[in-house]
């Protein structure tokens, strides 16, 4: 999908409305919701569930505490699955409650074929279907993150960073 960022008009698409798993692009929504609903200095506690996340991970341990800001850099620069779960649980109390926030925001943005279940993009399924989106909906989410969100500047600062240590 090629979208005009100012108007939101799709200029070109090829299979732009085909429903597909969204994988780690999910973390775009996780980041913007954390920025809008949290404080960068919030200290979030790691649950055993978050510590159990597979594949690409920061390596957090049950009971550890991290600043939200550090976790957001881990999320967006390294795509850490465990950081996404710590953020979701810290912002909304549970992954399920955070997924509800994600789905509400997607509807608010006009996404028609998006359903969030996980904050990290790992496959999932629930009563609403499987974790999925389309290129058109993903472009709409990204446009919001970089253009119209009240936290667009913070989102861009994180995603433009080349290195970050904590």
SSE-based structural type: mainly alpha
Q: Which strand order does the major sheet show?
A: 1-2
Q: Which residues form runs of ≥5 with pLDDT under 50?
A: none
What would you call the shape? globular
Mean pLDDT: 97
Distance N terminus to C terminus?
36 Å
Query: What share of the residues does DSSP label as strand, in percent?
Result: 5-15%
Continuous helix count: 7
Largest sheet: 2 strands, antiparallel
The total beta strand count reads 6
Q: What would you call the quaternary organization?
A: single chain
Rg calc: 15 Å
Summarize the helix and strand pattern as letters: EEHEHEHHHEEHH
Query: In which range does the helix fraction lie?
Result: 40-55%
Précis, in short:
Helix content is 46%, strand content 9%.
Question: Can you give keywords for this protein?
Answer:
single chain, 166 residues, mainly alpha, two-stranded antiparallel sheet, 7 helices
Describe the structure.
The chain has helices at about 25-35, 50, 70-80, 80-90, 95-110, 135-150, 150-160; strands at about 1-5, 10, 45, 65, 125, 130. With about 170 residues, it is mainly α. A hairpin with a 6-residue loop joins strand 1 and strand 2 (about 10). Helix 1 (about 25-35) runs antiparallel to helix 3 (about 70-80) and helix 3 (about 70-80) runs antiparallel to helix 4. The longest helix is centred in the middle third of the chain and has 14 residues, at about 95-110. It starts with a strand and ends in a 6-residue tail after the last helix.
């Amino acid at each position: 999908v090629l979208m005009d960022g100012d108007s939101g008009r799709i200029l070109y698409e090829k299979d732009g409305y085909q429903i597909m798993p969204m994988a780690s692009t999910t973390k775009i929504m996780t980041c913007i919701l954390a920025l809008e609903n949290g404080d960068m200095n919030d200290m979030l506690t790691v649950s055993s569930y978050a510590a159990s996340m597979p594949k690409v991970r920061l390596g957090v341990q049950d009971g550890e505490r991290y600043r939200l800001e550090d976790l957001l850099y881990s999320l967006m620069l390294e795509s850490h699955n465990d950081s996404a779960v710590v953020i979701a649980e810290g912002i909304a109390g549970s992954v399920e409650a955070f997924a509800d926030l994600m789905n509400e925001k997607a509807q608010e943005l006009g996404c028609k074929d998006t359903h969030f279940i996980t904050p990290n993009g790992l496959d999932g399924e629930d009563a609403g279907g499987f974790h999925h989106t389309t290129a058109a909906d993903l472009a709409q989410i990204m446009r919001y993150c970089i253009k119209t969100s009240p936290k667009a500047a913070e989102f861009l600062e994180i995603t433009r960073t080349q290195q970050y240590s904590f």
